Structure formats: structure tokens, C-alpha cells
Amino acid sequence: MDEPPDEQPWSQYEIARRIPKYYKSNKGLINATIFTLCRNSELFSILDSIHQVETRFNTRYHYDWVFLNEEPFSEEFIELTSNLVSGRTRYGLIPGEHWSYPEHIDQEKARKIRESSYWRPILYGSSESYRHMCRFNSMFFYKHPIMRDYDYYWRVEPDVKFHCDILNDPFKFLKENGKKYGFTISMKELPNTIETLWHHTRKYFKSLPIDYFSPDYRRENLVKFISDDSGISYNYCHYWTNFEIADLSIFRNEIYEGYVQYLDKAGGFFYERWGDAPIHSIVFSLMLRKEEVHLFQDISYEHTVAQSCPLDKEIRKTAKCVCDPIDSEILTDDYCNVRFLEAADVEKPEDFDDYVSKIYGRIFERIELRQERKKIFKENIRRESLRRRKKAEELRGHQFSLKKSR
């Protein structure tokens, strides 16, 4: 790629480009970018993520970093983020039609649904912007004029951590090994957020000339990862898409495009709370061969409720890891990483069963500790209640004595 000049504007949807003062050309690297969808208000959260990625990986490679926002980025945002990135930074504005309601959506109906008591206790259940974000990440990010310049992308969000050096270029790994999609953590979606998603998925895929649920295709794809009954129902397993590294051709694909357009017309982004994670996971588990999807077991990633950590001691030593694999619960039944290894016929790491046993042991220790603390808390309350009762009785006795003496 030619180096873009450090000036603006270039297009209606690219508001700024920056090149580091001591920029080293990334010629010879994969045509790829790190990608972040972010708001100005998340500046300091994304700065921490940038520092993590740059320190652990990108200072050795200088890949571009693309930032997109539905509103123009502030000068402060551009200045501080570009100051940390070792590669070129590009700042884009999302087209209005990619962050708004399509004509077929009844906005009043959508508002009443998300503001109802049903959605209030559900994570992001009442959020309008979250629904627009999930639709954008499902249908539009790869179509943005800036993103059209790249063949691969790596999604990075605010408030993420990488606890080990990333020793190899994951873009290069994907390309050289014929991989199309990579992830670190898989878990289960909240069932009540996607009640009709699987129904519409089967309807769309059954309309195609290829039967991706047939025995022949099930031997090649990852239906076993997303379904326990050969595709009749969805088991809610999904790749956690806040970290995904992918060949963008799988998004720029007739089957994928047809699928998300079909889902968009069904209205579930707004009438339910369909996330991009189950959508990406379902379609790629069906249309890709199992060997084209890769679990990065050597990358330690953490975001909000979950983290991964390499089991291999030598990798942890070489990569200067600061994580303990026993603290990670992603190998338990509450997550789907083990299911993926089995569905993809991937050999489990050495000492795998031993680590799983230790992880469950630590979980039980935490449960016992919580129960013990709860017991102590209740006992303290009981004692405090007795103390107050005794004090009240003493006070009443004292008052009675005073009255009697008068």
C-alpha cells in the first residue's frame, strides 16, 4: 500500500490520517489493519487497549489502526491515539444509513420493546445504541470506505488487556495456514436475546442450493460447535467477537451478505437484541471448513468477565506472561472453548485435564470462601443484633431504676 499523506480530507467518511514521526514502512507485511469502533467518551479506555496491543505486539510490526465513530472524532482523540500507535492511524465517520433504522422497522414498536420491563434486567436490553452497534458490526464495518483498503482485520475494543507478548504475527499465521477466522474465547449467548435467530438462520440456509446441515457438510464444518443435535437447535455457543482476527473475504461473500440482509429484514436487531457475536459464529461455523477457524491458545486476552491464558509453560515464559491459567474459567462447561476443540478435531494441549481439574478446584475454593464469608457476615449480624438488644434491655432497666428511685 502507498503511504497516505498526513493531511485531510480524503473522502466524506475519512476525516483524518496520521503517520508517526519515526514511522517505519510496513511493506512486506500482510495487507491488514487493527480496527476499533469507539466514541470520544471512551478515549482513555481505548488508550489503555492501544498501549496493551502496541507493547505486546504492534511496535514490532507497525500495522495500521483504523478508528470508526458515528460522530466526528475530537482533535484530542486523534492526537492522543495517534501518539501511541506505531503504525498509521486512520479516522472514519460511519455513514448515517449504517447507524440508523432501516425503513421497514417500526421505531415506536422497537422503542416500546426495549423499554419494557422484560428487557430492563437483561444486559444492554434497553440500549438503543447497542442495537445499532451490533447491526453495524454484523452488516457494515467491512464495507466502510477505509476498510475496503484491507484484506485482514483485528478487532480491538476499549478496556481490553493482553497478558503475554504476541510472539508471532497472527495475520501472517492466518494467511500462510489457510485460516479465515481466529478467536481466543467462546461462551454462551443469553437465550432471551436471540429467541428467533436460529429459526431465521435455518430458514435462510435451507433456501440455499447447498445443504450446510447435511451429514457430508457436518463432517467438514463446525455445526457440532453450535448445535448438539445436528443443527435442529442452537446451543448458544459463540466466538467472543470483541476479539476476532479475520480474512475480510468471509464477510465480502454472497452467502454472508445474503444472511445478514435476511436477518435485517426479520427485524431481530431491534425487536430482540441480536448480537454480532452469535451471528458471526453461526454463519462462519456453517460456511467455513473446521480447519479454517482457529483458536489462538497462545494469546492471553482479557475483557470484562473472561480471560484466556496459555497452558504451555514454555510459551508463558517466552511471551513474558503475567497470567495464571488456573484463574481462567474458559475451559469449564460454562464456556465453549473445549467444545470447539472437540468439534474442530484439535488436539488438546499437554496436561489439559490436569489444568481443568485445577481450575475447577480453584472455582470450588472460591465458592467455599464466599460461603464462609457469608456465614461470618451472618454471624456478625447476629452478634450485633444481640449486642444491641442487650444494650436496649440495659437502658430500659436503668430507666426503670430511675423511675423507681423517684
From TrEMBL:
GO cellular component: Golgi apparatus; membrane
Localization: Membrane
Domain of life: Eukaryota
Record-level Gene Ontology MF annotations: alpha-1,2-mannosyltransferase activity
Membrane topology type: Single-pass type II membrane protein
SUPFAM superfamilies: Nucleotide-diphospho-sugar transferases
Gene3D superfamilies from the UniProt entry: Spore Coat Polysaccharide Biosynthesis Protein SpsA, Chain A
Residues annotated as catalytic: E244 (nucleophile)
Chief location of this protein within or outside the cell: membrane
Parts forming coiled coils: none
Keywords of the record: Glycosyltransferase, Signal-anchor, Transferase, Transmembrane
InterPro entries linked to this entry: Glyco_trans_15 (IPR002685), Nucleotide-diphossugar_trans (IPR029044)
A single GO BP: protein N-linked glycosylation
One Pfam family linked to the record: Glyco_transf_15
Family note: Belongs to the glycosyltransferase 15 family.
Protein name as it appears in the record: Glycolipid 2-alpha-mannosyltransferase 1
Protein species of origin: Pichia kudriavzevii (Yeast)
